[in-house]
Amino acid sequence: MKLSQLVGQRLKEAPRDAQTASHIFLIRGGYVRLVSAGLYTLLPLGRRITRKIEQILREEMDRVDGQEIRMPVVLPAELWEESGRYAKVGSELLRFKDRNGKDMLLGMTHEEAVVQVARTELVSYKQLPSMLYQIQTKYRDEARPRAGLIRVREFTMKDAYSFHGSQDCLEKYYERCHEAYVRIFKRIGLKQCLSILSDSGMMGGAVSHEFMAIADCGEDTIFASPDGSYRANREVAVAKLAFAKDAPLPLNKVHTPGCKTIADVAAFLKLSPAQTCKAVFYKDQDNKLVFVCIRGDLEVNEAKLRKAIQCPEIDFANDELIRAAGTVPGFASLLGIDAKKIRVVVDPSVSESSNLVVGANEEDHHMLNFNFARDAAGREHIMITDIATVREGDPCPLTGQPLQALKGIEVGNIFQLGTKYSAPMACNYLDQDGKSKPMIMGCYGIGVGRAMAAVIEQCHDDYGPVWPMAIAPFQVHLIGLNINQPEVRQACDNLYQSLLDAGIDALYDDRGEKAGFAFADADLIGVPLRLVVSPKTLAQSQVEFKQRNWGKRSELIALDGVLPFVQQQIQELMALCRPDTPTA
Amino acid sequence: MKLSQLVGQRLKEAPRDAQTASHIFLIRGGYVRLVSAGLYTLLPLGRRITRKIEQILREEMDRVDGQEIRMPVVLPAELWEESGRYAKVGSELLRFKDRNGKDMLLGMTHEEAVVQVARTELVSYKQLPSMLYQIQTKYRDEARPRAGLIRVREFTMKDAYSFHGSQDCLEKYYERCHEAYVRIFKRIGLKQCLSILSDSGMMGGAVSHEFMAIADCGEDTIFASPDGSYRANREVAVAKLAFAKDAPLPLNKVHTPGCKTIADVAAFLKLSPAQTCKAVFYKDQDNKLVFVCIRGDLEVNEAKLRKAIQCPEIDFANDELIRAAGTVPGFASLLGIDAKKIRVVVDPSVSESSNLVVGANEEDHHMLNFNFARDAAGREHIMITDIATVREGDPCPLTGQPLQALKGIEVGNIFQLGTKYSAPMACNYLDQDGKSKPMIMGCYGIGVGRAMAAVIEQCHDDYGPVWPMAIAPFQVHLIGLNINQPEVRQACDNLYQSLLDAGIDALYDDRGEKAGFAFADADLIGVPLRLVVSPKTLAQSQVEFKQRNWGKRSELIALDGVLPFVQQQIQELMALCRPDTPTA
């Protein structure tokens, strides 16, 4: 393609709200354009890249025996009512009525729709396992779209769903999909993409993994052991903390005037926050109090808490609600709580530590030497579960080594759903004994546009993206300098034609712009290989060659050897994206 | 792929509402499944076919210098307000509010969205002409979805938009697109697809063509001259009717008791309906009367009428409205009308005919010998324009030969839009003199699913589709009979593998079903080439071969020559879909 014809202006400036490399370069390079908040048009450059990503997705899904289908974007609400999600999912699910007044929605994920297929088309154990996938438009009515293609409202997703006759079969297939995902992210050119344990959130199910492209701009925090044996999303990460195990001392009330925070009381008593117990009050969806105790140096992980109490939305309780429970804000503790009447959740950092400072449930007083096993009344009604937020440096639960914190962009996720959808929706099959059983399901998603953006986050310099060969919009960028000189034009035209004839996807800058301008455009377009023809190189029957990531370095190569040289370079760069190539 | 693993049951019965071959076979063959009215899931068979169609569309769009983009399905209402269509288009445009209360819609076509791209990305005449296209999901909230994939609510469409600096450039490019469309429909295997003049309807613009796949179940009626020189949709077709040109006789009132219809009055007066004038009363959107006169044997073509009076919605007027205009229902005519006060439209069949019978505007009376040029008061206020519905056998406007009526399915359309969108939306470019001018636009659409359905309508027998090789879900269907015999299984497995190794897309029926059952499935799947291995053929080292459209005929071919034979067959059948092959 000739650059003069390529639709999509390069821009000098990024929009003010663009903070991340991918957002900046996707706009500046003419890959995408904003239509409305969270809605983008992919321009030809962006569409070329996403089509290559989609092709890789198809190949890898076909490799794991997937069959491509296409479900509608617009779905009837009744399907989601069957699974119970119509009521459960919040306003990110876009609901509307059609012209006949029927409740409809825009699919943000397609478990219900695919179950509708499976329950009619998969009848016998002989047809299992089976996997269906699609590459299709999704809509999620995000309150705050951000960061270009990282968090949008409408997006293209590869979503895949597997159906099994046993948990064992699911687990084996899940492992195959995990491997396929590792291959995919390698093939699209991500340099560092980690699979981590994750919270399955609104999808439900037991085991799930996220694939995180490591990038400073990532929204997600990952805790990883240095040897890589443990990796988990902040929402589910656990640490193997050491707890004080001293002999219990007698409870002892002390005067702690005005000490309403952990910092206050620790400073006043000359103790560390880890020697105290923090009381945190939440309210659930029904406005009922949830009393949470955690060691004073730790923070409550609300994702863990929501999951523990199976409540999708929680918020802090106000003083009124706290007082109504018979406690004193700022000085509350388990000592003043009737665990039969109030929901209490205690982190092991409290239940397993000795001699903590707790509130005395009395204005301006605390108690020394609280020991849960001795002092907590109604212990049998209290839920003890890990609800602590992991901190960088906390010991890894597997190895004890200090955990590292990384930032990542979630580019894919896989879930073992079990029978969460198949059971309520009667998605059954007949087993070998002719008995009807619900299918065991898995699901597997990758956002195409976000994957493209994540590649930029990992592969760019100050001037633009450095596209991996496998998904680059073009393979070779040919620039003619002083192209209004007929011999340059002729040499460029010939070279361009010979590249095309050799099946090489070439972009040809035939505009006759000045070198600096042409190179800046080339940097923004980020094609991996660049050829520059100028009167100077032509005089030597040469072409200047450089790889996009060589910075200022370049090489001169003989004009008559360009074609085999470029073909060799393409092969070498493609090899970097081969799934069997070890990551640098 | 093994048939035992293919997701999508074959069904013995079609749903009760399925009347057309495509609807029946798409369901019975397991190509698609209904999700909700007008919403379908494409199962693997259907998706395989649509992907092949999409690939052909891409190739042909790229051939006419198209650049692929992807615009959102969900669009902000403000874009459609700019063009004025947000208010104009009816309830087939699905409107909703997002979570922030902003007015949004589901795109049913993307002129506004692509103009938003063009007006920022195309700046100079140097960038024109330019064409952008996408293959993407559309939603149209049809009141009455019908006939399977023929009329749905959600569908995949290839929509393309071209931008030009002059009408001349548009017209030349329009011609190229017309040729591309002819190629496309040939390549996907349609046997008879005619391009016809059409009404541009809500799209606006001057010239437009529809591509009609000829099929008895088609919703559209086409009038064509026997030599093909004239073809037009019923909505715009014209005929070169002969009108009586006798010397005017004096007006003469006659008593016609109870003769309220043309049939009554013609019978009573022993004249033919063509010797009478019919008065038809409509009301426009503002409930204002529109009085229409047409020769008694002709029918008003409401599409023409709507276009003539530039009123998107009309309906019959009630007697009250008719009487309020001072006329007598059943006996009304131009003789009783004040054309200054009432909108009057007269067909040339009335204005150019002599001595017609018209209503006397008096109960139970008509007038003989009405002559428009003599008797119509206020003629200068009357619009005279063709609003007649063409009938089969009417003379062709070009050749005078009797027009034939054909039924067709609209599988594509192309429009010369002119500046209908670019002018109101300020989609301008700078011409060679640095002047800002609105771009001249064209647009070009093809529905992918409907194209697939149209192919079935033209290519099927009583037992299922007969897929053209170019879009067939598989190239070869291999059936093993008595496959539980180890030597049959082995021979089939070997043959299947050798087909795959040769790059042939083969479906392998490895289920061991009885011949009749297996053949019925094969007919429904419609793969163009079929190989059957059985103990009987194996004993002769042979394979039974047939083409899908051979009926009961088959051939025996040597097992060791199958591969080159099949490759040859594939080439021959592909050649039938080559755009340079003359249509049978």
Overview of this protein structure:
The structure is a homodimer of 584-residue chains. Chain A is built from 16 helices and 31 strands. By secondary structure, the first copy, chain A, is of the alpha+beta class. In chain A, 27% of the residues lie in helices and 27% in strands. In chain A, strands 3, 7, 8, 9, 10, 11, 12, 21 and 24 form a 9-stranded mixed sheet that branches. The first copy, chain A, is globular, with a radius of gyration of 29 Å. At the A-B interface, strand 1, strand 2, helix 2, strand 4 and helix 5 of A face strand 1, strand 2, helix 2, strand 4 and helix 5 of B. Chains A, B: Pfam families: HGTP_anticodon (PF03129), tRNA-synt_2b (PF00587), tRNA_edit (PF04073). Chains A, B: This is Proline--tRNA ligase. Chains A, B: Belongs to the class-II aminoacyl-tRNA synthetase family. ProS type 1 subfamily.
Distance between the termini of chain A: 33 Å
Beta percentage of chain A is 25-35%
CATH superfamily of the largest domain in chain A, called what? Bira Bifunctional Protein, Domain 2
Supply Rg of chain A: 29 Å
Question: Roughly how much helix do the residues of chain A carry, as a percent range?
Answer: 25-40%
CATH architecture of the largest domain in chain A: 2-Layer Sandwich
Overall pLDDT confidence of chain A: 92
Main sheet of chain A?
Answer: 9 strands, mixed
What number of structural domains do the residues of chain A give? 3
CATH topology of the largest domain in chain A: BirA Bifunctional Protein, domain 2
General form of chain A: globular
Name the quaternary structure.
Answer: homodimer
Count the E strands of chain A.
Answer: 31
Largest interface: A-B, 65 and 65 residues
Structural class estimated from helices and strands of chain A: alpha+beta
Low-confidence stretches of chain A: none
CATH class of the largest domain in chain A: Alpha Beta
- Number of helices in the DSSP assignment of chain A: 16
